[in-house]
Amino acid sequence: MKSTIKDYEIQVGQEVWTTVFSLFRYTAEESESKGFGKITKLFESELGPAFYFYDEINGGERIGLVKNIIMKPTSGMINNLSNKRIELKEGVKKKKEK
Predict the structure, then answer these.
(1) For residue 28, which phi and psi values (nearest 5 degrees)?
(2) d(CA 70, CA 35)
(3) Domain range for 58
(4) pLDDT score of 41
(5) Are 88 and 70 in contact (CB under 8 A)?
């Protein structure tokens, strides 16, 4: 029996860690890249329940599969997110100074 979005406790606006697909190179082969962001849309795909999200780690809009959501991110993943957020704040600060 194929699972659907209704089988999962997931919703738009929820922040998740997952392995990612590029929005423009969506194929059955996912990358080993990990992403983090808020879900912007849920949909059914050929590979199972999926979602769009803006990836705070890699930048850009991405696709994730619900089955690939990472429930317990590693400390390295959390540190990477923290560093990306610091980089973003510093970039915005420098832009305001110009």
Answers:
(1) -70, -15
(2) 10
(3) 5-71
(4) 95
(5) no
Q: Give the model's pLDDT for residue 43.
A: 93
Per the CB < 8 A criterion, the answer to whether 53 and 64 are in contact is yes
Q: Tell the residue number behind the tokens 């082969």, with chain if given.
A: 29
12 domain residue, yes or no: yes
Better-predicted residue by pLDDT, 34 or 5: 34
55 assigned to some structural domain = yes
Domain count, the chain: 1
Is 17 inside a domain boundary? yes
Whether 32 contacts 22, CB under 8 Å:
no
How do beta strands 21-22 and 61-65 pair? antiparallel
* Alpha-carbon span 51 to 66, nearest angstrom: 7
CATH of the domain at 15: 2.30.30.60
Give pairs for 52-60: CB < 8 Å, separation 24+: 52/23, 53/16, 53/18, 55/20, 56/81, 56/84, 56/85, 57/33, 57/81, 57/84, 58/20, 58/33, 60/22, 60/23
Q: Is residue 64 part of a domain?
A: yes
